[in-house]
Amino acid sequence: MNNLVKTFVILLVVSTMLAGGFSGLQAADQKEIKFGYVQWPGVTIKTHVAKKVAEYLGYETTMTSGSQAIVFKGMETGDIDVFLGNWMPTMKMHFDKYEETGAIENVRVNLLDVVYKTAVPKYVWDAGVHSLADLNEHADKFNSKIYGIEPGNEGNLIIKNAIDNNTYNLGEWSLQSSSTAGMMTAVKRAVQSEEWIAFNGWKPHYMNVLFDIKYLEDPENIWGEGERVLTVARTEFKNENPNYYKFLQQFKVTAPMQNQWIYNYKQEGQDPEVAAEEWIAENLGIVNQWVYGVESVDGRMARKVIKEKVGK
């Protein structure tokens, strides 16, 4: 009788341990992925592509938009898992404080060949304005103003700091904060009448197709060097979802790819979800590299699942 009781107890303990271990694995295998993004065309469509891959693999997804500060704060609080638009070194002032607390980490560079600097139309460049150091000499033509995008953006802060510190003799200048759309409207208006304008420009972006622009030299290096875009994840995300984290480690794009995404999204007016779906279906070779060694939520090979989803 005692032996039967002992056997029952042992079996009960083993069963409990197995159940606990199994539930622990389930808890670690996070089934929802929460993306954050800034409403810039390149980051928006890139996030939709990564999100669509996640959905094909069986994950539930959400997307939350906001400024860089809001996105990084959301990652600290656990409301956002992944951000694909950490533009460095421009975003360094916002990123560093969250990295230092251990809340977030860079996963990898997902895009090289990028630029974020003060730009002018080519006719202004041809007139002799090649550097930020040349601006103040022509202050009257620029109305002593540089156009930026949304308040709090790092590019705006860089120019604001230059004004506050009288860097490049910009102490009497002002920053016109707006939005990407608002800034683009101001540039379009100026270009149409060949007025002089200086603004925060970047590439990849369709502004480089719409307008003939030049990026000003920066001898004081206020914009930093070594520009690239990185994928950021909550520090705990790697342990919570090692499967999709592996995809993030392998996810990288080229400037021509992102230019095409931006063109389809902004110039052709294509819904970003549709643009992502169509691109994935037409570029399975690239997608297969991203998902090498990755599985779907139900444990199947990712590339086979995605091929089934797109009907090829």
Task: Outline the structure in words.
By secondary structure, the chain is α/β, with parallel strands linked by helices. It has two domains: 33-112 and 227-310, Periplasmic binding protein-like II (D-Maltodextrin-Binding Protein, domain 2), CATH 3.40.190.10; 115-215, 3-Layer(aba) Sandwich (D-Maltodextrin-Binding Protein, domain 2), CATH 3.40.190.100. The chain is built from 15 helices and ten strands. The strands form two sheets. The chain has a five-stranded mixed β-sheet with strand order 2-1-3-10-4, with helices on both faces. α2 packs across α12 and α2 packs across α13 (272-282). The longest helix has 27 residues, at 2-28. Mean pLDDT is 89; it is low at 4-28.
Topology:
Elements: H1 2-28, E1 32-37, H2 41-56, E2 60-65, H3 68-77, E3 82-88, H4 92-100, E4 104-111, E5 115-121, H5 122-126, H6 139-142, E6 145-147, H7 154-164, E7 174-176, H8 180-192, E8 198-203, H9 207-210, E9 213-215, E10 228-234, H10 237-240, H11 242-250, H12 255-267, H13 272-282, H14 284-290, H15 302-310
Parallel strand pairs: 1-2, 1-3, 6-7, 6-8
Antiparallel strand pairs: 3-10, 4-10, 5-8, 5-9
What's this model, at a glance?
With about 300 residues, this protein is of the alpha/beta class. About 50% of the residues lie in helices and about 20% in strands.
How much of the sequence lies in strands comes to 15-25%
The number of domains = 2
Name the average pLDDT.
Answer: 89
- Poorly predicted regions: 4-28
SSE pattern: HEHEHEHEEHHEHEHEHEEHHHHHH
Number of strands: 10
Assign the structural class, choosing from mainly alpha, mainly beta, alpha/beta, alpha+beta, or little secondary structure.
Answer: alpha/beta
